[in-house]
Amino acid sequence: MKNLLNIQIFIVLSILTACMGPQGFITEQTPPPIYPDYSGVTIPVNIAPLNFMVSGASRLRVNLSIDELSIDLKGPGRIRIPLRKWRTLLNRAVTLEEEITVTVLAKIQGQWHQYMPFLWHVTRDTLDPFLSYRLIEPGYEVWKSIQLAERHVETFGERIIADNQLTGNNCMNCHTYGNQDPGLSFFHLRGQDGGTVLNRNGELRKIDLFTPGMLSGVVYGNFHPSGRYAVYSTNQELPGFHTQKGERLEVYDSGSDLVVVDLDLNEIIPFPEGFPNEFRTFPVFSASGDAVYYCNATRMTVPDSIYNLRYDLLKIPFDPTAGTWGNKVDTVVRASAMGLSVCHPKTSPDGRYLLFSMARYGTFPIWHQETDLWLLDLHTGETNKLEEANSSYSDTYHSWSSNSRWFVFASKRDDGLYGKPYFCYVDPRGKAHKPFVLPQRDPQRYLNTLKSYNIPELSRGKLPFDATDIERLYFKVPAEKVSIKQSVDHE
Fold first, then answer.
1. Among 123, 158, 183, which residue terminates a domain?
2. In angstroms, how far is the first alpha carbon of the chain from the final one?
């Protein structure tokens, strides 16, 4: 097989270099410096073409080959792969269970350079076809334009599903799915006519998820597998700027707690009494729906003690039949003992894994360069830092694909400033593979945009609403009210 691959590479290079004229080429002993970095990645069979560029190149000649199938491409410093040819190539790779060889020649300052080929591994484990994210300037407390967008990852189709220019220029929080279901999602609209927008059972609703006695309106949330409940944190958040070099903004809680919302009855189910008055945030239901994972820290004075504020990962039972919390809390990951702080836990749909991020302290990891992704195997109890997926900049918020083989996460690995959605494959052995960024029709798009991609979430289908529906809901539909559930008996 290795000899066959070497023969294929020699033939490809011979064909490519035969067209280059008498000036010859420089042979490089490294892979090409392509952007985005797609070299050596594992990709799903249903992903859009991995178009790329070489910075400083005036011309490119590229060959994509597998077995007897060979595709020659050329362009002015960047390559756009035709969708039909791309689909044929990926399907051939899956059928043969072989890798795609990518050979690149680049003309830089009048001289052709021949680079070492690299490989693309294609898996038949598909990625959920739709992705939502928030587009926002990576600022601190001031914003001009916020949009929620939906992207078809099998092509380059993108549409706006909510736009704050149509809703009074108010803040708009990120969009969250339940069970990767396009018919079950929510996001928060702030402002006088705001509320939590709930997309459920073919209906768009706006709910005021606040009652007297709560610390605040709801913030971070997650759906129960049944779709009847959602669990949220209530956070009294305060922003602050660092004085230390390399540190930017910190957002911390002066108070935080958890509630469950019964979406059928519009009832709030408070966290049970009798537990210490601690900081609780980032709740998610287990895949089976019988427990809630959340991040918990000992209450302390902030911002004075911010560098000592570390969250552990805890678990508390939940009874979906009775709609009640349990009365026993277990520690799942004691991150504080490692000098770290847990954020953003997410269980895989099959119940096998729990993915989370860890930083040195606090609960706002997007500006922490050291933030990394970790994976807990819920069957074995083994916890691993995902070295294959992490970078030297923050790798934070994530969500799973419905088959539990892929997850998407926000990473600032390019420049430390702009977050972008990266996809990572987790094979049946639980091994993570080198991630790749969401492909774009024009590979220069990420270099030209001034927006961060926040809170990427995968879905199995297209959402049933758009920005005009949200505009009407904001201005024309009163927010539903909720009440506290009475006579709550805990297990």
1. 123
2. 61
